[in-house]
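Long-time lurker, finally posting.

We've been working with G2633 protein (Coccomyxa viridis) and I want a structural starting point before designing mutants. I don't trust myself to interpret raw outputs, so I'm hoping someone here can both generate the structure tokens and explain anything notable. Sequence follows.
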Amino acid sequence: MAEALFGNLQPLTHGQIRSCSDLRQAQRYLPSGTKHRGRAVDARWNKRNRIVSRASSSEATDLSLTDLQLLLEDAIRQENYQEAARLRDVLTQRESDSRSAIEDANAEFYRAFKSRDLKAMSEIWGTGEHVQCIHPAAGCIAGRDNVLESWRVILRGMPMDISLEDVRVCARDGAAFVTCVEIMEAGDSRGRTVATNVFERQNGKWVIVHHHGGPAPMFM
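Top reply, 14 upvotes:
Generated this for you. Predicted structure of G2633 protein:
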């Protein structure tokens, strides 16, 4: 490890650098570009050890997708292919579960939209200063209260049927987004809107924090 970090220079070993009371003193002995690498390696190694410890305890179910991916990469580096296969299966299942949860949350959003249910719409929207909405041909509306007020106006309008095409889901730890094409039908009118919905996990529930809709190109 020391050779990988410090090349052929040996005035201070890696252990001596870690125990040095003044990091700047140790940095004088490091080649250019490696002055903080020791701390970075330590941080990554400590994080790996914490994750491994949690994975072998009752906290394993709380591991994030990122942590599981790190464990999988570590198992492959150690050529522990049995553990790597187990972690791969866990990751695949967790990703599938997250995708299903996002698909359900997205469907809940459009059910509220289609049924013009303001209460249901308010329940699917999250909280926070980052909550935003951009309706077709409109500017950005920021803040939960303002966003819900915009939906109040929209849901008071003409009833419409809404169906979705080309739904694509990307889910990660605590955040996800959906892109889709909205097919709107109201009376004799029919329109297509491309939409992006951003979701966030708040208090254990997936909620929408950003919706952006715009006219779909004619060639779609």
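Before you design anything, note these points.
The beta strands are 132-134, 140-142, 161-172, 175-186, 189-202, 205-215.
The radius of gyration is 25 Å.
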